[in-house]
Amino acid sequence: MAALFSLLPFFCFIQLSLVFFLEARNVGFTVDLIHRDSPQSPFHNPSQTRLDRINNAEHRSLISSQIQAPISANLGSYLMKISIGSPPVTVLGILDTGSDLTWTQCKPCAQCIDQDTPIFDHLKSGTYKPSACDSPACKALGPDYFCHRDACVYTMSYYDSSKSIGELASDSFTFGSTSGQEVTIPSVTFGCGYQNAFASNRTASGIIGLGGGELSIIRQLDEHIQVKFSYCLVHALTDPNVTSKMNFGSNAIVSGRGEKYYLTLERVSVGDKIIEYEAINAETGQEGNIIIDSGTTLTSLPPKIYGELESALKEAIGSQGQTAPDPEGVLSLCYKNGGSLKLPIIKFHFTNANVDLQPSSTFIDVPGDLLCLATIPSDGISTFGNLSQMNLLIGYDLVGKTVSFKAADCTK
After folding, report:
1. Buried b (16+ CB within 10 A) or exposed e, 88-113
2. Which positions fall inside the Peptidase A1 domain (predicted)?
3. What is the pTM of this model?
């Protein structure tokens, strides 16, 4: 089964308008990321309070930890707006840094997800071209395809029971950048989905795959953006009117490790308290023990490491705070009336990178006038969630196989 390893998490959507040409080289562009709860988002619910939004985000991460998959089971929180075909038709896809294939719903749709935009009709596109079953693109799907006559039929299944089945094809993709300059890519391989389902109600058209495999958008734009992208996430849960940014190509500063973007976390520290972390991944037997996941809200750590981190925080905070249970039962370390607390910086010591996590990125307000640690224990794969990534410029370089971090004010 294909895994939706990560979908950049709180639901945001990226407004793009690019149009690349084959002769273009070393293109750099920046797009806006709009939080799903922003007034600018089609999913905005004006009746929800800030605490409601935080509570919903917690539950998305909780489901993720229960299924022991490095993803948000509700398929993330950021959306990308692109156009496909000639003439171009707008589609709204869930942005996913953990899977490769981009797909959208297509007519005739035997099983469809409700979406706000028109369903793509490939018969009306003059540049649509089905992929043959013996084509390199079809072979790149690995076990996730079968042949019907000469057509390549993809079968994508995700850990949360979401799925898409349809025809692999290529067509013109159009994106839009913050500069207003459009870029068109004449031929991008994608899935034209005829049987589709999300595990929860979403009105997106499909998935935008930003993983490290051959069929990801990033790999397909190799000659244009040198397989580099970066993003800078703002605290959209507390200020949904501010947009985050995603950069591609020459606009992107820094670097991903393999298709799942594994990092090696060597230790975690709070003040002079150091918590050692096993550097070897039990699943692969190699270095790379934590996944950086823009599609999961909360950070998750092995229970033993989490327990030591919680003890270190309690010691650092001391008697200034009174602990209390999270009424939702999601978060383990909470304090009453936390606004007056002096909270310590938590440091994540990755191989070749020490990242300071400010209290605004490690603790969140929850209903009941509580301030809680936005990290949970999990027996599954450890995940560096997107709350921990706030106000960090994080770059992925698929060629160099690196991820880099830089403290930043992501509102600018």
Report:
1. bbebbbbbbbbbbbbbbbbeebeebb
2. 78-406
3. 0.70
**Residue of 310, 317, 316, 319 lying closest to 272 (CA atoms):** 316
Assigned token pair, 245: 């940014």
Q: 307: how many CB neighbours lie within 10 A of its CB?
A: 14
Would you please indicate which residues are annotated as catalytic (active-site) residues?
A: 96, 293
In the 8-state DSSP scheme, what is residue 322?
-
Encode pLDDT of 372-389 as tens digits.
999 999 988 888 988 898
CB 154 within 8 A of CB 164: yes
What is the three-class DSSP state of 223? Answer: helix
- What distance in Å separates the CA atoms of residue 255 and residue 263, rounded to the nearest whole number? 11
Assign residue 258 a region (left: φ > 0; alpha: ψ between -120 and 50; beta: otherwise): left
Strands 103-105 and 206-209: antiparallel
Listed as own residue / partner, the contacts of 149-158 with beta carbons closer than 8 Å and 24 or more positions apart are 154/101, 154/103, 154/191, 155/2, 156/2, 156/99, 156/101, 156/103, 156/191, 156/207, 157/1, 157/2, 158/1, 158/2, 158/3, 158/4, 158/71, 158/75, 158/99, 158/199
Q: Please tell me the predicted confidence (pLDDT) of residue 94.
A: 79
Mean pLDDT, residues 326-347 taken together: 88
In degrees rounded to 5, what are phi and psi of residue 211? -75, -165
Phi, psi of 22 (to 5 degrees): -60, -30
For residue 310, count other CB atoms closer than 10 A to its CB. Answer: 17
275: tokens are 């918590």
